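Lab notebook, bench 4. We co-purified these components, and the gel suggests they stay together. Before we commit to crystallization screens, I want a quick structural picture of the whole thing.
Request: model the full complex, all chains together.
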Amino acid sequence: MTPRLAVKDLSVRFGTDEGEILAVDRMSFSVEPGEVLALVGESGCGKSVTAMSVLRLLPSIASVSGSILLDDTELTTLSTAEMREIRGRDISMIFQEPMTSLNPSFTIGFQIGEVLRRHEGMSRRQARERAIELLELVRMPAPRSRVDEYPHQLSGGMRQRVMIAMAVACSPKVLIADEPTTALDVTIQAQILDILRDLRARVGTSIVLITHDLGVVADIADRVEVMYAGHKVESGPVDDLFANPQHPYTVGLLGAVPRPDLAGGIQVRLQEIPGLVPVLRSEPEACVFAPRCVRATAECREAMPPLELLQPRQHAACFHPGSRVADYSEGVSA
Amino acid sequence: MTTAALAVDNARAWRARRLFRRFASRPPAVVGLVGVILVVLIAIFAPLISPYDPAHGDYNHVFLAPFSAGHVLGTDDLGRDVLSRILQGSRSSLSAGLAATLLAAVVGVSFGLLAGYYRGPLDTIIMRATDVMLAFPFLVLAVGLAAILGPSLNNAILALAISSVPGYVRITRAEVLGLREQDYVQAAIVNGAPDRVILFRHILRNCVSPLVVQASITIPTMIIGEAALSFLGIGVQPPTASWGIMLSSAQGYISQAPWYALIPGVAIAITALSFNLLGDGLRDILDPRATK
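Here is the predicted assembly.
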């Protein structure tokens, strides 16, 4: 099967006053039709930058190289006008912050309808009717009366539903969800994930889910790409990767998730990964994770390990792979 | 009408009622609104309610004091009825105030949108140009422009409008800079909205409140400006009446007929004050930052 979205060797550099920053380094991934791919990592790992570069929404200080194929269309070489056609119709995006992502001056029905009028050439009346259907699809209560309400009349969860309704209005091929549940409370999170699952089944949309919430990943994703400092450090199907993580960073991330089901009533201290994500200025000459890694050896400080197939369906970039839990209590050798 | 459409109308009506209540609870604002409505009505119906032809002189009755028979506000140096001239003068004042404000707002907002949204060299050019204009005091710039353009009401309006463009550019640009970073603007781009839609629907629509306030503050400035230009002889030309011209001719007779200078002065003051009070009231109810 040909992938719906194929990103190959994507690098993103930002020119800043303090010199160049390498935000994403030779990142490759692909999403099949109807698949949910999760991009996982700490804040500052380049997840959002990767997503923004797919939509070509990065500011002009960013220079992007590599290839982004949507079906057979190369997105990196499209004109601004062609890209505008793609946005909202073939690829759309849900943001993290539903409270501010709607224009306060217009009704939600108008804002959902705007996308339909632009991309599908619908009349105002048609667009309004379709907006009501979409609100039903995202399980908005009383869609027929809600459609004429303004954003300030809705709760955060409802606004996120409106955002999703806008994003899926044209049945996009790819939906990028940038931390869609972070700003919502847990019961609403579960409902939003249900809606996304439902959409994938009904519309066949591929979903790129950006998150640092591994619970959300386990719940909905098919495959996971773990990012660290702009690099893919591990990837694989969600079940394999969660059961048998190879890269110490993935092991660390999973160790930081509270698991009352495994603790068996005993209080267990959560594992943390000491240190912060580094800011890269150029292509690394050592493993990017080495400064924070307990397994790091001299080898790790001399070269960036390549991404290798370590398990039947799992890739990882590490010289010392394995799922054994890292013991950070011994401290990190710098 | 569908029930949903009714619901929208109800929501709008509710919002309008709430704004009105907030407005009505501010007596100065209400006084300003009443004053503005009165001046507008007077300007519209001036020819119908004037007791005399404002340009018709009667040399047998010059400098009649106010409240003399037939002339409530007296007569001027040429025996013309002052009340009729005040009524007619309200037309130049109001048309200058409104037209110049509208013109300045349209031009200023357009440049402000462009500068704030596209940034870059365009922003630099526009903002440096406004800085240059702001280096001159408002009235000095207006007088200079009016002198270059030649004396007439239209040129006075043009000169006043150009002089107050920088204020609008600055306010609009500042608003746009904040709004363009809003998530819903990003969301609109993600949904494939062209610049035109983003600029007008998502950005301009949300900076209307400060612009309305700015407009209501500019109008009295324009009215005073028009009076000043006419006073200096580079605005409205005789025999058309204007409060500025009346002041100008009254200053020669200030010791013989002080009321003659007082009356147009009071007219200007009341009109400008009404607009100012209205503007303050609008700012209070429209600007969320000023709301307690």
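Confidence is low (pLDDT under 50) at residues 328-334 of chain A. Worth comparing against the SEC data before the next meeting. DSSP finds eleven helices and twelve strands in chain A.
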